[in-house]
């Protein structure tokens, strides 16, 4: 039978599929439906140093083959997570990824320091957050801004550091190179694409912030292209995500060079998606005589 284990920065993951941040809660919400220990890991809800109530108004809006969200990083804060949600995540039997965001570099630094003294396996740095000191432009848009925040966090971070990239970057290869140069141990991409919806009857934008984030199968071919570009650019591990809904989708990202994948929006349509996709990957490998994912990883580079 296929061996689905994956080595990520020296840690052996149980499989190649990770529950993506913001779509999988803290994993415990799914524990009655699937065996989370079969997953490669669970990525926490996006955390900020201090808790946030999230955005007002409409938060989710379905589109053809996609979903637009404007959650606004609602979360209890890093300290609350460490004391309350993290102990529950430790019971899942899989790797723990803590997704960390912030509006100022100092918030990122303090959050990373706090998480560094916990059993968290990886910190996933969300640089799609708005830089409140520079007009709200996301850290992940300009390479020099990303380099600064990653290097500052790297200097104080005790855990393996994965940088989650925005697809809205000015140049995806340049951004990837900047993050690697600044000390990122790995990269994950892509985050959501900036999008918009209009309510015809109300004759106004659906979201209070006007623009929001598009995810789901609609973005998958673009996300795959970006992952392929990044895997050709850097020599650190890359985790692929963006619209993955089937085992075949996941295998495309692995053939494009990804060491593992994250599954997000698909969990809303099918709460068992992560486990099902894992099974579909194994079935394809068995059918095609592939014993380990290393045999096919990056075969399209």
Write a brief caption for the model.
The protein has 301 residues and is of the alpha/beta class.
Beta fraction: 15-25%
- Low-pLDDT runs: none
Anisotropy-based shape: globular
N-to-C series of helices and strands: EEEEEEEEHEHEHEHEEEEEHEHEHH
- What structural class is derived from the secondary structure elements? alpha/beta
Q: Largest sheet, described in full?
A: 8 strands, parallel, barrel
Helical percent range? 25-40%
- From the N-terminal CA to the C-terminal CA, the straight-line distance is 26 Å
- Strand order across the biggest sheet? 3-4-9-10-11-12-17-18
Mean pLDDT: 96
Can you describe this structure?
There is one protein chain. The chain is α/β, with parallel strands linked by helices and 301 residues long. The protein has 8 helices and 18 strands. The strands form 5 sheets. An 8-stranded parallel barrel has the order 3-4-9-10-11-12-17-18, surrounded by 5 helices. It has a 4-stranded antiparallel sheet with strand order 6-7-16-13, with no helix packed on it. α2 packs parallel to α3 (143-156), α4 packs across α5 (220-233) and α6 packs across α8. The longest helix is centred in the last third of the chain and has 15 residues, at 273-287. It is globular and about 50 Å long. The chain starts with 5 loop residues before the first strand and ends in a 14-residue tail after the last helix. The mean pLDDT is 96.
Question: Which key features would you list for this structure?
Answer:
8 helices; 22% strand; 301 residues; globular; four-stranded antiparallel sheet; eight-stranded parallel β-barrel; single chain; 18 strands; alpha/beta
């Amino acid at each position: 039978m296929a061996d689905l284990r994956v080595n990520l920065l020296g840690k052996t993951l149980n499989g190649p599929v990770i529950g993506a941040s913001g779509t999988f809660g803290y994993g415990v919400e799914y524990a009655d439906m699937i065996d989370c220990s079969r997953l490669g890991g669970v990525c926490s809800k996006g955390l900020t140093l201090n808790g946030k109530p999230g955005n007002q108004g409409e938060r989710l809006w379905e589109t053809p083959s996609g979903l637009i969200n404007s959650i606004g990083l609602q979360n209890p804060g890093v300290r609350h997570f460490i004391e309350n949600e993290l102990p529950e995540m430790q019971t899942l039997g899989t790797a723990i990824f803590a997704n960390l965001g912030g509006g100022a570099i100092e918030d990122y630094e303090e959050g990373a320091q706090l998480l560094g003294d916990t059993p968290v396996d990886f910190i996933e740095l969300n640089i799609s957050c708005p830089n409140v000191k520079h007009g709200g432009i996301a850290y992940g848009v300009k390479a020099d801004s990303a380099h600064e925040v990653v290097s500052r966090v790297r200097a104080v971070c005790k855990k393996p550091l994965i940088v989650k990239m925005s697809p809205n970057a000015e140049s995806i290869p340049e951004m990837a190179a900047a993050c690697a140069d600044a000390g990122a141990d790995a990269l994950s991409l892509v985050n959501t694409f900036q999008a918009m919806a209009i309510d015809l009857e109300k004759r106004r934008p659906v979201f209070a912030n006007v623009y929001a984030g598009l995810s789901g199968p609609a973005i998958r071919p673009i996300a795959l292209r970006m992952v392929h570009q990044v895997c050709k650019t850097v020599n650190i591990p890359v985790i692929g995500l963006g619209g993955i809904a089937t085992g075949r989708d996941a295998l495309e990202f692995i053939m494009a060079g990804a060491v593992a994948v994250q599954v997000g929006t698909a969990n809303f349509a099918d709460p068992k998606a992560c486990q099902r996709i894992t099974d579909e990957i194994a079935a394809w490998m068995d059918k095609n005589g592939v014993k380990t994912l290393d045999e096919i990883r990056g075969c399209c580079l």
